[in-house]
Amino acid sequence: MKHIKEQFIRYMDAGFPIIYLNTYEEDKADALIRSVAGGRNIEEWNVRGYFENQVLMQAESPLEDILRTLIDDSLSLQRSVLVLKDVPLFKDQMAVIELLKYLARRISNGSLPDFNIVIVSSEVYIPGELDPFLTILHDEYLTVSDIRGVIEQFCRDQEVDMLPEFIRELAQMFKGLSEYEINTILALALSDDGEITRSDLSLILEQKKQVVQKSGILEMIPLKEGMDDIGGLESLKQWLQRKEKIFRNMEAAAAFGVDLPKGVLIAGMPGCGKSLNAKAAAKLFGVPLLRLDMGRLMGKYVGESEANMRKAIGLAEAIAPCVLWIDELEKAFAGVGGSGGAADVTTRLFGTFLTWLQEKDSQAFVVATANNIASMPPELLRKGRFDEIFYVALPNKEERKKIFSIHIGKRRPDDLEGIDLDRLAARTDGYSGADIEGVVKDSIEAAFAKGEDAITTDGILEAVSQTHSLKEIMKDSLQKMESLYKQRKFKNASA
Q1: Which residues neighbour 140 within 8 Å (Cβ) at sequence distance 6 or greater?
Q2: CB atoms near residue 279 (< 10 Å)
């Protein structure tokens, strides 16, 4: 909060007409505004009415009417701060937007000295007409130390005893959440049996997942698959295992001169385990897996998409250490460098992401996956963006044996001993991991329908004969992709 307070004061002193405070903790926002007002009068509008220094002056008054009254008596605005809340309610009210623009222009030309407009909202909405007059301040996420303080205060208020070691563990789990959310989750955990113990950790994690998902941009993915669930890709797995040692011992690694891991780009054929590697990496590192849905970043209003990107990055860094998984990266930045509204927005998003990737100093490890890198901006593939770029080819014979073993073992472990994996691998050249999984599922389903006691090699081969391989379906595309990967000197994930 100290950093944002300093920024706030700087913007007010510089005469910024409109300061947009992006937060949903209104109590903290109110305290912040009071601390930076410097004795100025604080006027506020929200859906309940118009207030002066927290005293209700007019109940349920439309914002347009309040603004017109203030403009008519502009002397009352000098040495004051006008705070606006519930702003999504006037998204389509052009009269309100024009009145705010009029006030902003008067602040800019000096006819309203010591006057600022402050918008407080959890949702970033910037009408194009106000864009030149507006700057955004994003609420800061709590540090681990701040979170410990919140937990300790909760314990004092509720007369709950917790060991310091457990408080430190909870503080790590609560990273990325607000003070209000932390207190709410602690109260929920306490209400079950009157105490907060390790048995409540699953509840806390579930609530945290919901909070992350409510961001509308990030999703916390449950971790089920590990490295043993990946058939082959030994080179990539070994590389991730080396990064895991650094990730888990970052202080010692930094003291030794090791750089903070940035992330990895995994390109290659669809259905060959790229997404599985993202999940397995998070489990290997022992950290949450956050999936960034790039499609959800795009907003309809000016600046909304960029604000969403900053929000996603900020939340990932606040939760860190974590793995940030960006799927189908090439689709996210299609159109970079083009002209037109959508292309301009994509280019700005790309610039924001690239800068963050280059300069980030948090333990948010990025795992980006892509099917076709031909359409990706070349700037993204330069050294220094990712620690390494791997390509995933169709599985070789040994990898296919392993993949069959994994999927049969998951579903019919007792049948595995009687299966000739060599025959299966020999008959499935050109099949992806997803193809093989589909074959196993089909053969099990067929065996059940026939009333058989077990699956057999012949039964699986029958399913193989009825399945078209990825190599058959995408022969030309696959050849072009593999040629491009080798041309770019990407590392083979299997070698």
Answers
A1: 1, 3, 4
A2: 22
Tell me the per-residue pLDDT of 416-438, one tens digit each, with 9 for 90 and over. Answer: 999 999 999 999 998 989 999 99
Q: Which residues contact 79 (CB under 8 A, 6 or more apart)?
A: 39, 40, 41, 113, 114, 115
Radius of gyration of the chain (CA): 28
Please give the pLDDT value at position 235: 93
Fold of 227-392: Rossmann fold (3.40.50)
Architecture field, domain 2-138 = 3-Layer(aba) Sandwich (3.40)
pLDDT < 70: residue spans in the chain? 1-2, 88-91, 298-304, 334-342
**How do strand 289-292 and strand 218-221 relate by DSSP bridges?**
antiparallel
Q: Among residues 223, 227, 331, 225, which one has the least CA distance to residue 270?
A: 331
CA distance 422 to 401: 7
What was the pLDDT predicted at 336? 67
Which DSSP string do the residues of 401-454 spell out, in sequence order?
A: HHHHHHHHHHH-GGGGGG--HHHHHHTTTT--HHHHHHHHHHHHHHHHHTT-SS
pLDDT of residue 487: 79
DSSP secondary structure letter of residue 115: E
H helices within 131-249, ranges in order? 144-158, 164-173, 179-193, 201-214, 234-248
d(CA 416, CA 410): 10
CA distance 432 to 477: 14
What's the token pair of residue 44?
């506020």
Segment 323-361, tens digit of pLDDT = 999 888 877 776 665 555 567 777 787 888 888 888 888
Strand partners, 51: 44, 56
Which residue(s) pair with 46 in the sheet?
Answer: 49
Tell me the C-alpha distance between 454 and 417, whole Å: 11
User: Do the beta carbons of residue 139 and residue 123 sit within 8 Å?
Assistant: no
Q: What are the strands of the beta sheet with 49-52, ordered from one edge?
A: 55-59, 49-52, 41-46, 80-85, 115-121, 18-22, 134-138
Q: Which fold has domain 397-473?
A: Helicase, Ruva Protein; domain 3 (1.10.8)
**Structure tokens of 461?**
């081969």
CB-CB contact of 264 with 427 (8 Å): no
C-alpha to C-alpha distance for 261 and 361, rounded to whole angstroms: 9
Alpha helices in 37-93 (DSSP H): 63-72
Tokens of 227: 């490295």
**pLDDT value for 335:** 61
Query: Residue holding tokens 């079950």?
Result: 192
